Amino acid sequence: MFKKLALFLFTAAAALSASITTAAPGACLAQCRLDYIECLDSSADPVACRRELLQCNRDCRYPPA
């Protein structure tokens, strides 16, 4: 239950990070990293955290249309 909640919160934060990419791409990538660390600290699955980090980084570099 807690892992799912943590993953949901991480995903929401990653989406927010991606939305600020147009203002400051460097800040977006930094936020992705912070979200990743928070995900790992929440005892979520490290593989899922890594997957979300990579998706967040992609969204920062190539924002969805």
List the helices and strands and how they pair.
Blueprint: H1 2-19, H2 25-41, H3 46-61
Helix pairs in contact: 1-2, 1-3, 2-3
Describe the structure.
With 65 residues, this protein is mostly helical. It has one domain. 78% of the residues lie in helices and 0% in strands. It contains 3 helices and no strands. The chain has helices at residues 2-19, 25-41, 46-61. It is elongated, with a radius of gyration of 11 Å. The mean pLDDT is 80.
Question: Main traits of this protein?
Answer:
65 residues, single chain, mainly alpha, 3 helices, elongated
Biggest sheet descriptor: none
Radius of gyration, whole Å: 11 Å
List the uncertain runs. Answer: none
Helical content stands at over 70%
- Order of helix and strand elements from N to C terminus: HHH
Provide a count of the helices: 3
Shape: elongated
The figure for the number of domains is 1
Proportion of residues in extended strands: under 5%
Distance between the termini: 32 Å
Backbone structural class: mainly alpha
Mean pLDDT: 80
How many β-strand runs?
A: 0
How do you describe this structure in short?
With 65 residues, the protein is mainly α. Helix content is 78%, strand content 0%.
